[in-house]
Amino acid sequence: MTPGERLVVRYRLAEGQAGGHFSDALGELREVTEESVSIQTRTELVRIPRAAITHAKRVPQAPTRRRPRVPRSE
Questions:
Q1: Per-residue pLDDT tens for 15-58?
Q2: What sign does the dihedral 35-17-23-4 (CA atoms) show?
Q3: How far apart are CA 55 and CA 60, in angstroms?
Protein backbone atom coordinates (compact mmCIF):
# COMPACT_ATOMS: atom_id res chain seq x y z
CA MET A 1 0.00 0.00 0.00
CA THR A 2 1.22 3.45 -0.81
CA PRO A 3 0.57 6.88 0.68
CA GLY A 4 -2.51 8.56 -0.74
CA GLU A 5 -4.59 5.39 -0.89
CA ARG A 6 -7.83 5.18 1.09
CA LEU A 7 -8.04 2.21 3.40
CA VAL A 8 -9.50 0.75 6.54
CA VAL A 9 -7.26 -0.75 9.22
CA ARG A 10 -8.35 -2.88 12.18
CA TYR A 11 -5.89 -2.87 15.07
CA ARG A 12 -5.53 -4.03 18.66
CA LEU A 13 -5.84 -1.38 21.33
CA ALA A 14 -3.18 -1.05 24.00
CA GLU A 15 -3.94 -2.66 27.36
CA GLY A 16 -6.26 -0.51 29.44
CA GLN A 17 -7.58 1.60 26.53
CA ALA A 18 -11.34 2.16 26.52
CA GLY A 19 -13.53 0.94 23.68
CA GLY A 20 -12.96 -2.80 23.70
CA HIS A 21 -10.07 -4.79 22.34
CA PHE A 22 -9.99 -3.52 18.74
CA SER A 23 -10.56 -0.32 16.81
CA ASP A 24 -10.79 0.67 13.13
CA ALA A 25 -9.29 3.60 11.27
CA LEU A 26 -10.77 4.65 7.90
CA GLY A 27 -9.00 7.27 5.85
CA GLU A 28 -6.06 8.22 3.66
CA LEU A 29 -2.74 6.51 4.22
CA ARG A 30 -0.19 9.24 4.93
CA GLU A 31 2.99 7.48 6.01
CA VAL A 32 4.42 3.97 6.34
CA THR A 33 7.50 3.29 8.46
CA GLU A 34 9.05 0.11 9.81
CA GLU A 35 7.33 0.75 13.16
CA SER A 36 3.96 2.30 12.26
CA VAL A 37 1.46 3.53 9.70
CA SER A 38 -0.28 6.92 9.79
CA ILE A 39 -3.84 7.37 8.56
CA GLN A 40 -5.62 10.70 8.19
CA THR A 41 -9.21 10.08 9.23
CA ARG A 42 -11.96 12.66 8.89
CA THR A 43 -11.18 14.00 12.37
CA GLU A 44 -7.53 13.23 13.20
CA LEU A 45 -4.20 11.73 12.19
CA VAL A 46 -3.96 8.23 13.68
CA ARG A 47 -0.56 6.56 14.13
CA ILE A 48 -0.88 2.77 14.49
CA PRO A 49 1.99 0.46 15.50
CA ARG A 50 2.44 -2.15 12.75
CA ALA A 51 2.55 -4.94 15.34
CA ALA A 52 -1.01 -3.99 16.43
CA ILE A 53 -2.55 -4.25 12.92
CA THR A 54 -4.71 -7.32 12.37
CA HIS A 55 -6.35 -6.46 9.02
CA ALA A 56 -6.02 -3.79 6.35
CA LYS A 57 -7.66 -3.31 2.97
CA ARG A 58 -8.12 -0.69 0.29
CA VAL A 59 -11.54 0.90 0.01
CA PRO A 60 -13.06 3.09 -2.72
CA GLN A 61 -12.95 6.85 -2.45
CA ALA A 62 -15.74 8.40 -0.43
CA PRO A 63 -18.71 9.49 -2.55
CA THR A 64 -19.03 13.20 -3.13
CA ARG A 65 -21.67 14.86 -1.03
CA ARG A 66 -24.74 16.13 -2.82
CA ARG A 67 -26.30 19.50 -2.23
CA PRO A 68 -29.51 19.34 -0.21
CA ARG A 69 -32.63 19.16 -2.29
CA VAL A 70 -34.58 22.39 -2.53
CA PRO A 71 -38.35 22.04 -2.87
CA ARG A 72 -39.71 23.24 -6.20
CA SER A 73 -41.84 26.38 -6.20
CA GLU A 74 -45.39 25.83 -7.45
A1: 766 656 899 999 999 999 999 999 999 999 999 999 999 999 99
A2: negative
A3: 17
